[in-house]
Amino acid sequence: MRLAIVGVGKLGLALLEGVTSRGVMPAGEIGLLDANGTRAAELAARTGARNLTPPDLRYAERILISVQPRVFSEISDWLAQENAGYISTMAGVSTAALTRRLGTKRVVRVMPNLAATIGLSQTAITAPREAESAGDLEFARQLFGAVGDVYDLPEHLFNAFTGMSASGPAYAAVFAEALADGGVRMGLPRALAHELAAKLLVSSGELLQGRAHPGLLKDEVASPGGTTIAGLEVLEAAGVRGALMRAVVAATRRGAELGKDQE
Ligand SMILES: NC(=O)C1=CN([C@@H]2O[C@H](COP(=O)(O)OP(=O)(O)OC[C@H]3O[C@@H](n4cnc5c(N)ncnc54)[C@H](O)[C@@H]3O)[C@@H](O)[C@H]2O)C=CC1
Ligand SMILES: O=C(O)[C@@H]1CCC=N1
After folding, report:
1. Measured between alpha carbons, how far is 33 from 92 in angstroms, rounded to an integer?
2. I need a surface site. Which of 32, 49, 135, 224 has the fewest CB within 10 A?
3. Ranges for the Pyrroline-5-carboxylate reductase dimerisation domain (predicted)?
4. Over 90: is that where the pLDDT of 261 sits?
5. Smallest-distance ligand from the CA of 122
6. Do 229 and 120 share a structural domain?
7. How many CA within 13 A on the CB side of residue 251?
């Protein structure tokens, strides 16, 4: 078995579907293990992957850990196998903590986001030299390359990447919901307002990618004395920029706390 996925939740499933649909690995070479045995069995039956129990992990060449960080210390005893390489998506959990609990330096730390479900994840990746020479880093790069872009990132920046990019879709969702509420407040039908908000995020993202700085797009939309600058004045007075910055700071700090709990 080339890969065992432990924790087949939102991310584990996105990865399973991404690597199999892109032909990176056939489902038959992947095993699934989840505390929710029914879910794992159903996913295995649907995709052709194998449904595993903990003793089966000894046959895995590599193990992807995608459980919540608080679960890690509870299961690290049976996760630890002699000849396996590990890849962890867990927020905050450092390669040092992974090494200490799993008893190997063949550990790769990744930080994707939920856009992995549509092949548009931004995934940070880092690993100690031992994982690189064992081919684990390259293996993980291929896995996460199947669900989006992969960025090499020094480990000391992982919690910042988590607080901005991995948590980012939730911030965007709050923005979209509030924008739609504004539309509804001014009389637009709810369903239309939601559709407009989602499409605005997509199209604005495309527009931003063609510009060197986000402020350029803002300046192009805001006509002198027009509607947009009147709206922007309210956002500035409400401290929206500061709130977003502080959200990233808080999420980054929370990542560090989650990591400390698993040391
Ligand atoms: N959801 C997101 O947007 C992102 C999540 N992450 C990280 O990825 C990890 C997984 O996140 P999600 O997929 O969102 O979580 P999730 O809650 O959807 O999935 C976790 C899975 O682990 C299973 N599980 C729980 N205890 C277990 C055990 N003892 N043995 C085996 N399986 C067990 C659960 O049944 C569940 O299916 C977390 O550590 C999170 O920090 C990283 C980046 C983004
Ligand atoms: O909220 C969390 O802890 C996870 C990690 C980044 C996105 N979701």
Report:
1. 22
2. 224
3. 155-258
4. no
5. 1
6. no
7. 21
